[in-house]
């Protein structure tokens, strides 16, 4: 670093901010803010409820599952999003594969 750059207030401010944000990133990494590695199909699955949609003849809500490794998506139509029905679908259709 030459003498002009060393005394430049803009450069010293940038250096301080860089050190500060690097420190914050390290602190977040220490708190476990890292992504979870997905190593094989079925290792991590996302589950979400979508709806209500406009009424059809039978179903108006959907249970959506996504396998994060293979990107496989499955959609299960539901008449009503109730815990027993969702549990049955997850156990019989997803978890036991």
TrEMBL record:
Superkingdom, natural source: Eukaryota
Name by which UniProt lists this protein: Uncharacterized protein
């Amino acid at each position: 670093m030459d003498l002009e750059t060393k005394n430049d207030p803009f450069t010293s401010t940038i250096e301080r901010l860089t050190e500060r944000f690097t420190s914050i990133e390290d602190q977040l990494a220490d708190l476990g803010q890292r992504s979870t590695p997905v190593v094989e199909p079925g290792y991590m699955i996302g589950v979400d409820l979508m709806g209500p949609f406009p009424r059809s003849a039978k179903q108006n809500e959907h249970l959506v599952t996504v396998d994060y490794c293979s990107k496989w998506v499955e959609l299960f139509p539901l008449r009503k999003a109730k815990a027993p029905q969702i549990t049955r679908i997850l156990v019989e259709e997803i978890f036991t594969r």
